[in-house]
Amino acid sequence: MTNVLVVGYGTIGQRLADGVSLQDDMNLIGVVDAAMSLSIRALKEKGMPYDLYAVNETCRAELAANGIPVRGLLEEALEKTDIVLDATSAGVGAKNKEQYKKYGVKAVFQGGEKNDVADVFFHGYANYEKGLHADFLKLTSCNTTGLIRAVDCLDKKCGIEKVAITIVRRVADPGDYHRGLTNALQVDKAPNHQALDLMTILPEIKATGILVHAPVTHGHFITVVATPKRDISVKEAIDTFKEHNRIRMVRLDEGFQGNASIFKYARDLGRPRGDLYEICIWEDTIVKSGKDIMFGIHIPQESVTIPETIDAIRAAMAMDTDGKTAVEKTNKNLGLGGWK
Amino acid sequence: MTNVLVVGYGTIGQRLADGVSLQDDMNLIGVVDAAMSLSIRALKEKGMPYDLYAVNETCRAELAANGIPVRGLLEEALEKTDIVLDATSAGVGAKNKEQYKKYGVKAVFQGGEKNDVADVFFHGYANYEKGLHADFLKLTSCNTTGLIRAVDCLDKKCGIEKVAITIVRRVADPGDYHRGLTNALQVDKAPNHQALDLMTILPEIKATGILVHAPVTHGHFITVVATPKRDISVKEAIDTFKEHNRIRMVRLDEGFQGNASIFKYARDLGRPRGDLYEICIWEDTIVKSGKDIMFGIHIPQESVTIPETIDAIRAAMAMDTDGKTAVEKTNKNLGLGGWK
Amino acid sequence: MTNVLVVGYGTIGQRLADGVSLQDDMNLIGVVDAAMSLSIRALKEKGMPYDLYAVNETCRAELAANGIPVRGLLEEALEKTDIVLDATSAGVGAKNKEQYKKYGVKAVFQGGEKNDVADVFFHGYANYEKGLHADFLKLTSCNTTGLIRAVDCLDKKCGIEKVAITIVRRVADPGDYHRGLTNALQVDKAPNHQALDLMTILPEIKATGILVHAPVTHGHFITVVATPKRDISVKEAIDTFKEHNRIRMVRLDEGFQGNASIFKYARDLGRPRGDLYEICIWEDTIVKSGKDIMFGIHIPQESVTIPETIDAIRAAMAMDTDGKTAVEKTNKNLGLGGWK
Amino acid sequence: MTNVLVVGYGTIGQRLADGVSLQDDMNLIGVVDAAMSLSIRALKEKGMPYDLYAVNETCRAELAANGIPVRGLLEEALEKTDIVLDATSAGVGAKNKEQYKKYGVKAVFQGGEKNDVADVFFHGYANYEKGLHADFLKLTSCNTTGLIRAVDCLDKKCGIEKVAITIVRRVADPGDYHRGLTNALQVDKAPNHQALDLMTILPEIKATGILVHAPVTHGHFITVVATPKRDISVKEAIDTFKEHNRIRMVRLDEGFQGNASIFKYARDLGRPRGDLYEICIWEDTIVKSGKDIMFGIHIPQESVTIPETIDAIRAAMAMDTDGKTAVEKTNKNLGLGGWK
User: Fold this and answer.
1) Which of A252, B150, C124, D265 is deepest in the core (most CB within 10 A)?
2) Residue D83 belongs to domain with CATH number
3) Hey, are the CB atoms on C294 and A210 less than 8 Å from each other?
4) For residue B69, is the peptide bond before it cis, meaning its omega torsion is within 30 degrees of 0?
5) Are residues A169 and A126 in the same domain?
6) pLDDT average, residue stretch C211-222
7) Confidence band, pLDDT 50/70/90 cuts, at residue C19
8) What is the pLDDT of residue B338?
């Protein structure tokens, strides 16, 4: 059993803890946070299914003052830990890294950190082997993780020469009050980082793209214009995507009208928090222009990176040396593909 | 065991089915619907935890064509049923009533139906006794249900002479594409129906109010200006609300910044679909002006009527002749107040 | 002087009337509408700068009952008219056409009508010559009109082989209550009609695209991935766009952060209604991937078709046989390019 | 002629400059700003209808580098000035005050400043006489300004004992990217400052209230529950409001469905920037509960304080010693009431 500690109990950290708990070959040591929050309040109301550790004494006192049971300090948790999943705010992970080193534990950082925090820029599907035995890995961001699933999947089928990506990015998660837009789209400088990141992970593919922020909370929407090396039909693309256990194909006539339908569906499924690990691709959006193939993807930003982060544990700890086997284990434990 | 059938498997119907399933003295016969939908698709993916009945042969064929297992037709379900929870679209319930009569089953309608569909206009807390042995009950709407919880609770404490209500109404549920507003508030003709309905349920209280629709999905927000018969302090009001098992008191300094915080909290709690049965009142909003007391309420529109609808089953079937006992049973089975 | 009548005094009709009034070689006979509206109320408060005609006696009575001065009926207006700009709701134009024929007047329809209502599917820049002497023209829709400005402009510079278009479509105009989305993106079946329409107007270019609706009101946002026949640099593209009097180049460092900045800027400019006739292209979005060039466009949906509709008058009435001269006259009268 | 300088060329500053320009007994010296902005870019494109002064040399250089003609520095402008309208960001006005004192010029601050910046907390209608000959006045905020118009108007008619106020506050102005909410209502600690401010301006009235932020840009919506000293009918209230030149009565059946309708109407009216100086009260929202009267108000946040700020100039400069005459002059020059 690999001992895993989740540092940072925010939007991503909570879902990582849930995901690790579902793995039959991992043991969740607990979660660590730095301050009182609504999520910790909910953890207590649920009866502390996970042990909670405080990042330091000040934090421990603050949590105690709110009636939250604290199991100990970060250091104590690190002593029992093989690998940390660091889901702290951007920049904090880099500082935490020194402590992880001191305790000789490995760590997986999320997409908000700078690339140089890690030895490997990791994506479960596309470059599993690079993560083997690595001490510090950084996962691709939510958009990039989902995007690469789709592009890598096509690339393995027919070879992809280049992609042009338009991202309609949700500006806030449900419940966010510290950020938001009202009746406005916001344009970013191009190319977007997701295109650059894709080229780092899949260096043989050329990529560029434009990102615009939209005032919604339930998922990003990405369009991809891909130039394949050999011609691929719409039918072939659908069949290829359908085989992938982290991709769902959806259709307008099924009632999937957009990002909000997918959130509703995941709630109706009874998924905790209404989360979906899969990206969705609308069959109705797959079109061709000459050899180019274009399609639209839904990215569930809160949960999409969970599977690939768990893959990262498997790679770093060399729990499986073969990426395909590792990914299948993660999928099985998360229930991915079981619905097919 | 009371045999309950849920007719209409939409936003409310799904939650009624879940709520009935949790009652230790009720048996869910199944759910009935009239057409294929995302929710039915999710029901199938979950492995059909409930039996599904089709409203007629056309519908049965449509469901079968989509690979959905259908247990039978509405008529077959009605034969096994003691009481129906009708959660169909506004107006359909009135038509269904004839069939319920034919099969000699009782029914509880939701707030969208006209009052004359029922013998009793019902609210679990405020007028339980009126529902006893009734054949047809209509529940108050989501806003009215939550509003009456708070007003009735104060009324029982200190007597309420009159209330003036401002409702900021969410325009759509998460996942709705058939209605919505974009960057607009919409004003309704005053007084709002909730004020009128409150006077029907609590005839000794005078009420008026204004309703404005706002472009959000996670809950209505209501302010109440209440004139009590005897002076009541803010502290006393808080204590009174706190004793109520269907009311949660929340505070800004706990991180509850608004409706979206409450939705986030319920998701973090692991509640199915991120639902909350309770209304929330912000302690920070309770203020006085002379004898008048003013406060702000959050109404979780998708799930707030579930407890009172289950109370209605208890009343109609005379499972408990005492309202207090009935409500406590419903609460216990739904886990309400257990977190205190 | 060409006598112009505007039929339909809604969002587009009002702006057409304003635009025609600014032309030194056109005479606005007046505007026609079918029912009382806020816009007509505003027209009266402004002191009736245009004559108003009623579509029939019922409408005339309704307007009179609201104290609105009515100059006469549609038929009386048609007798004085050379050409109608029909800005009625989709489908109505086709019915009106019979009456226009009866009075021997030409007509220009907006993008909502079906193509077969007209002899020519028209875009001022791209196919002016086709509109010469035509009796019935249909203008491209707002997105297509703006899109073609940009694509045609590049096509004339370096030749365009194909384009892939992603449209983030605003769901409602400011003030709309009859349509809207709340916290949702809505996906359409691909390819979008704008891609198909582009191929009708510019048949030598291949086009496809995906459209997603976003809950905003101030303009559509389009990304275009264009494959040029010969390589073109970002600098060259910027210079080409800058020469076009119906395109504005904007930059993030100037403060143009998105669609809402552009609306604000137009308001600050003192443009009536805060309108802009120009499309805007962000210099910051222009990127290349191999030979392909990608860029992002803002489409001011309420006003973008006004210049090309006025071009259509010039073509149909053969006021200018040369497209370039015609467009320059329209531009001069509308003040387009004067700010450079 | 009173020489007026506007310091701060943001949302309010621009509108103050426009409003002062319309006064036949005031002379606009110019506007002052501290940094390049979209609004200054628009000022230049319009051909510099106002002289622009830079707050210091650094700013002058920045403006010059952007090709903006600068007339001089703040100090040079102050030498020609009788009174400043300070529309800088909250807190800046307090710092500027020292400079105004040095040059012996009076100043009117906007609602964002703390009350102690000024000798008088001012509202044109309610306390004009207090502003006479004052050196430093602070205007009520946008919500309070509009609210007091309505309450003061009723108070003069029938006496008001107390009010309870619910404010649905727009979170951002059109074009704002530095603030915003997405799919969230945000609750504030009660009582809101507008209730407290109302009691400062109208000390004989008791007030309390709750404020909730909503994700819209076109105006705040306020409900008022007022307890009059003597009974007043709905009809009487309507007639009283109608006489007020800074209040418009609107109705749902006229097409005014909410805040967005009002913005649309003002755009259709051809008002610069689509602005309205008047508050609007929906006749349809005026209801009674016992003696209490309740109604709903629209506050156009960008422009509502302009008339009262101009009144403040008249008071501070003692241009009129009588408030009624002063207000009528402001109204006449701004065209207020002219439409009746």
Assistant:
1) C124
2) 3.40.50.720
3) yes
4) no
5) no
6) 98
7) very high
8) 73
Torsion of CA D258, D264, D270, D274, to 10 degrees: 80
CATH code of the domain in which D246 resides: 3.30.360.10
Q: Which residues of C are annotated as a binding site for NAD(+)?
A: 33
**B170 in the same domain as B86:** no
User: What sign does the CA torsion over A157, A158, A163, A166 have?
Assistant: negative
DSSP result, B219-267: -EEEEEEEEESS---HHHHHHHHHH-TTEEEE-GGGT--SHHHHHHHHH
Using alpha carbons, select from B211, B183, A175, A188 the residue that is nearest to residue D171.
Answer: B183
CB contact under 8 A, B215 and C174: no
Taking an 8 Å cut-off on Cβ atoms, the answer to whether C217 and B177 are in contact is: no
| Shortest distance, CA C254 to any CA of chain D (angstroms) | 7
**Partner residue facing A260 (CB), from B43, B174, B264:** B174
Cis ω on the peptide bond leading into residue A307 (within 30° of 0)? no
What are the structure tokens assigned to B66, written together?
């989509």
Residues of C within 8 A of A258 (CB-CB) are: 184-187, 212-213
The answer to whether position D340 is within a domain reads no
Catalytic residues of A: 142
- Give the closest-approach CA distance of B86 to chain D in angstroms: 30
Query: Which among B142, B153, B158, B280 is annotated as catalytic?
Result: B142
Whether residues B217 and B112 share a domain: the answer is no
Same domain assignment for residues C37 and C150: no
Residue D148 resides in a domain: yes
Contact C182 B177 (CB under 8 A): no
pLDDT band at D211 (very low <50, low <70, confident <90, very high): very high
Convert the pLDDT of each residue in B195-231 to its tens digit: 999 999 999 999 999 999 999 999 999 999 999 999 9
Residue D260 in contact with partner chain B when CB distance is under 8 A:
yes
Which pLDDT score, from 0 to 100, does residue B56 have? 96
| Whether residue C147 is found in the same domain as residue C132 | no
Considering the domain architecture, whether residues D240 and D293 belong to the same structural domain is answered as: yes
In chain B, whose CA is at the least distance from the CA of A172?
B260
pLDDT band at D125 (very low <50, low <70, confident <90, very high): confident
Q: Do D273 and C272 lie within an 8 Å CB cutoff?
A: no
List of chain C residues whose C-beta atoms are within 8 Å of the C-beta of residue A286: 190
CA nearest B148: which of B119, B123, B113?
Answer: B123
State how far the Cα of A101 lies from the Cα of D251, in Å rounded to an integer.
69
Question: Which pLDDT tens digit goes with each residue over D157-193?
Answer: 999 999 999 999 999 999 999 999 999 999 999 999 9
N-to-C CA span, chain B? 29
pLDDT tens digit string along C235-255?
999 999 999 999 999 999 999
| pLDDT tier, A79 (very low <50, low <70, confident <90, very high otherwise) | very high
CA distance B295 to D253: 32
Cβ pair B187:D292 closer than 8 A: no
The answer on whether D320 is annotated among ligand-binding residues is: no
Residues A54 and A66 placed together within one structural domain of the fold: yes
ipTM of the complex: 0.96
Q: What is the distance in angstroms between the Cα of A114 and the nearest Cα belonging to chain C?
A: 23
Work out the minimum CA distance from C140 to partner chain A, whole angstroms: 22
**Do B218 and A174 make contact, defined as CB atoms within 8 angstroms?**
yes
Enumerate the residues of chain A whose CB falls inside 8 A of the CB of residue B178. none
The domain containing residue B92 runs over which residues?
A: 2-140+305-334
Percent of chain B with pLDDT over 70: 99
B128 in the same domain as B218: no
The arithmetic mean of pLDDT across residues B89-96, rounded, is: 90
Q: How many domains would you assign to chain B?
A: 2
Specify the pLDDT at position A90.
Answer: 85
Q: Is D181 on the interface with A (CB under 8 A)?
A: yes
Determine the average pLDDT of the residues in A132-152: 97
For chain D, give the mean pLDDT. 96
pLDDT at residue A338 is higher than 90: no
Chain B (183-222) residues lying within 8 Å, Cβ to Cβ, of chain C: 183-184, 186, 215-217
Given a contact cutoff of 8 angstroms between Cβ atoms, the answer to whether D220 and D301 are in contact is yes
Q: Which letter, b or e, does each residue of A227-240 get, where b requires 16 or more Cβ atoms within 10 Å of its Cβ? A: bbeeebeeeebeeb
Residue D126 included in any domain = yes
For chain C, the average pLDDT equals 96
